[in-house]
Amino acid sequence: MSVPTSFNISLEFDAPGLGRRWVALLIDMVVQVLYVILASYLLGKISIGFGSDAGFNQWAIGLLAMSPIFLYHILFESLTNGQSIGKKIMNLRIVSINGGRPSISQLLIRWLLRVSDLWIVILLLMLFSFRAGGDTEGMIAFTFGMAFLLTDIILVANSKKAQRIGDILAQTIVIKTSAGESLHNTIFREVEEGYVPAFPQVMRISDKDLNIIKNILGNAKNSRHHDELAIAATKVKNYLQIETDMYPYEFLERLLKDYNYLSVK
Question: For this UniProt entry, which segments traverse the membrane (predicted)?
Fold first, then answer.
């Protein structure tokens, strides 16, 4: 897929297939189920007695112990640059619609709209309930859940950028990353002792645009994108009012290195 950026340059990403995304989701669900089993076992070994409030205290501790299940995706995706455990294993990543790192607000919107994931579990529970004799309200909820789930599946399978409902509203996309991804493919750069930054103006660039620069540098490994690298370098020089004879790749790499030094100074 081709994603336009604020540098007026389109970044190219590989869109993952529906099967790969389902496998990633299944892995995440297995991780969550294993956590529930472990937490339930440990809670069963704990005996809490605080008089008449013992039952309430047990319930509160149980709710607290299960909170990581509800916060699983938002915690992992915000702390690991858009990847849950399943996405990491399947080489998937969430990025902003402009190719940069998604903001916390975007990840939060996406997390709040992970309804279809919940419905997978709920639908299975309802299916067993119907076998035991379900009611009309249950059938309505089942129908609503199935409709929401099918909508997400259809959108991912047929939309141009493979976006589900949460992705569309959060302005995010899921991309396929290379299996050999390293720290050099992030904005992180190692800075040697005694390093002297050349362009302190880099601190005027937003984190979003720094991530876009990182992606442009990654695409520059392909000779077809050398012109785009020069355009990005020129635009950054004009914005920061920098004059330098550095080659575009060298200049943008130096910017990221300066940022790493100045951001922790």
Answer: 22-44, 56-75, 111-132, 138-157
